[in-house]
């Protein structure tokens, strides 16, 4: 299997750490570009095994750390740059995705079909995927895992009120026990770009196939978020995975050599969707 890691300067103003996996021999391979979620990164949980699954099926799988996600190219799985985390926003994440799509669609990876690009994202990354797919005709289809339906789905009203009052809030990372900042600029970005960052509106504008995947037992983002987006779309399919939580059975760290059973069901359904055309 081919595995490469590289650094791209992002249009958002910082560097993106990206890895590419695929078959050693490649001829017109379809591409999957994967976007991680809030407090996530490209190597979280079993994401490497997900990449291997698709690479073994003949895909080139591209995943990357959003440039302002709080990690660095030197520490790609640790939140060592919390100031960047606090200064992240959705517009910056869309610029990061655009940078990666430029690389993929520009033919920088040998042996891929640049007209067959699936954009896939988890949680807040799913919301990014919907927004980007609505505006970018380089995306052939979109897949979301446990997506949000509004950018503020992961922030309570009290958190938003505190941010407005103080100019910042701190969110506890339950795994690392870090208090992670979010600065007021995050909400200012939403206000200034209200039309273009409306996920429900974007969903109704997408004209390529979309697969919305959600666990029935999602404890972080209600499955009703995907159900709502499904109702907004004329070209979406809805896959509700019985018993799955927000991470489809994955956790960090993931030390097993196999995918969790729920994630296996998830990726197999995604493969079926992509191969259908």
Automatic annotation (TrEMBL):
Keywords: Hydrolase. Gene3D superfamilies: alpha/beta hydrolase. The keyword Cell membrane does not apply. Residues 32-252 form the AB hydrolase-1 domain. It comes from the Bacteria. Belongs to the AB hydrolase superfamily. FUS2 hydrolase family. This is AB hydrolase-1 domain-containing protein. It comes from Fulvitalea axinellae. GO terms for molecular function: carboxylic ester hydrolase activity.
